[in-house]
Amino acid sequence: MAGAALLGRLTWQPAEVADVVTETPRTKTLVFEVPGWPGHRAGQHVDVRLTAEDGYQAERSYSIASAPDGSRLELTVERLDDGEVSPYLTDELRPGDRIELRGPIGGYFVWELSVGGPVLLVAGGSGIVPLMAMIRTRIAAGSGTEMRLLFSSRSWDDVIYRDELERLAGDAGLVVTHTLTRSQPPGWTGYARRVDAEILREVGPRADERPHVYVCGPTPFVEAVAEALVQLGHEPRMIKTERFGATGG
Amino acid sequence: MDSHMLDGNAVAGLLQEVFALEMTTAIGTCGGCGAREPIGAVRVFRGAGVVLRCPHCDHTLATIVRTAGDIRISLAGVRTLEIST
Amino acid sequence: MAHDSSFVSRGFHGRRRGEADPGRVPPGQYVTPDFPVLSAGPTPHRSLELWNLSIIGEVDETRGWTWEEFSALPTEEITVDIHCVTKWSKLETVWRGVSVDTLLDGIETAAEYVIQYSDGGYTTNLPLEDVTGGKAWIVYEYDGEPLAPEHGGPARMLVPHLYFWKSAKWLRGLRLQSEDDPGFWEVNGYHNYGDPWQEQRYWGD
């Protein structure tokens, strides 16, 4: 039903923490069991709601990290030091705890097999989360769709899903390219600067191959990448963006 | 360039709450410059309320204000909204 | 949005919300040490060479100041609490700017209302008496530093007795008129006046 509006009012439902997995020093994956979860598409997100004892509530949106998997849902959360919600999710939540969430939400920033390829995914920091759902969806379907990931992180230790990406990069048709913008490990021969038109041109696909492009990360990152892609000749219509604002989501 | 600016994805949940429809794939025609874009691609600002702006000309497409008892939406800046069925 | 009071997130407290003294903090507000950036549109970047401030409308003579002229006007340091309709209040904020009384000094007008207008198109409306008599300033320093663009620099309005959307960022002028003219947020659901002590947040409150 690509493109068709999905009917239905969103309702809040409880979700139980099944597991908490450390990805990097600042990010954790929360694995939830959500009874009756209707399924989702890669790129969609959920709204999470927390309620304090005095009734105070805070709501935030988090991209779904996992490919559809029954009632199981994964969110990967980056801890923002001055955040109100993320420190609670990354420091406090334990298996057995419950939060409220509603979703899945979104239809524009979505990739599913019927969209096809080639696909270029450009991630800045925690912007990798919805793009990882796309990669995992492709892998789980055994699809041969050509998919390239260009992933900008501050340092090798900050690369979210690093080991999984190394494993998956061997899969036919999936190419992973990193750029590390602040510090690089000894012997690093990869890119060591912010994503620019030159890197995008080298990573490809070319504009005339008409790839579906998905860009996600902090707003300045998305703005710079989208502009560079248009400069390289990619049609704006083929570029979908999700901005995480100033703090990176 | 505003680092705090978001896009239509950020209000997907709010819009679905109001319209009971997935709205980020709906296509809006800007009442200012006539550009057609999916709502997911428009600019979103958070002021006293939420403001949706045309990514081409910054014209105010819509505002959304949540009060204690209702949600007030103005779509005055959108010439037409196309929602596929 | 019904709140199921039985669902509580174990261990979640939210931002440290200071004990709100009802004599100091209006109803429904919480105190924050932060200064959230809230904007209805993109931050305009107006160079000081191209900046000017105007008083126009139903006045005997319109007035205007270049940046050089404006920054030569007598200023005051103002320390006030500010209250945002999105429920945060920030106490003891320190500003420097020119009193609106100074700008209107000697102007003849029968106008009862003033419309603030800004770069980017934002407007907000007030009775003229709410910006005169020592109640409002056009400020260009916050906390001892030039006012940052994201907070309304080069210069913004400061009307601390009302919700902060009544203090326009990126101010370019005041239009005095005998008719009221609801501004950007007023036509889109917010209150026409905005007194935080009577919790006048939304149109109809």
Explain this structure to me?
The complex is a heterotrimer of chains A (249), B (85) and C (205). Helix content of chain A is 19%, strand content 32%. Chain A is α/β, with parallel strands linked by helices and 249 residues long. The mean pLDDT of chain A is 94. By secondary structure, chain B is mainly β. Chain B contains one helix and eight strands, in the order βαβββββββ. Chain B has one helix at residues 12-19, and strands at 6-7, 27-30, 36-38, 43-46, 50-53, 60-66, 71-74, 78-82. The N and C termini of chain B lie far apart (36 Å). The model of chain B has no long low-confidence stretch (mean pLDDT 95). In chain C, 4% of the residues lie in helices and 30% in strands. In chain C, β2 and β3 (63-66) form a beta hairpin. The mean pLDDT of chain C is 94. Chains in contact: A-B, A-C, B-C. Chain A binds chain B through residues 3-10, 45, 47, 61, 102-103, 105-109, 218-220, 223, 240-246, and chain B through 1-10, 12-13, 16-17, 20-26, 38-41, 83-85.
> Major sheet of chain B: size, sense and barrel closure?
5 strands, antiparallel
Q: How many H/I helices of chain C?
A: 2
Highest CATH level, the class of chain C:
Alpha Beta
Q: For the residues shown, what is the average pLDDT of chain C? A: 94
How many angstroms separate the termini of chain B?
A: 36 Å
Query: Roughly how many Å is the radius of gyration of chain C?
Result: 18 Å
Average pLDDT score of chain B: 95
Q: Could you say which overall geometry of chain B the principal axes of the C-alpha atoms support?
A: globular
User: What share of the residues of chain B lie within helices?
Assistant: under 10%
Task: Produce a short descriptive summary.
The complex is a heterotrimer of chains A (249), B (85) and C (205). Chain A has helices at 86-92, 128-140, 162-168, 197-203, 219-231; strands at 13-24, 27-33, 45-51, 57-63, 72-78, 98-105, 119-124, 147-153, 174-180, 212-217, 239-243.
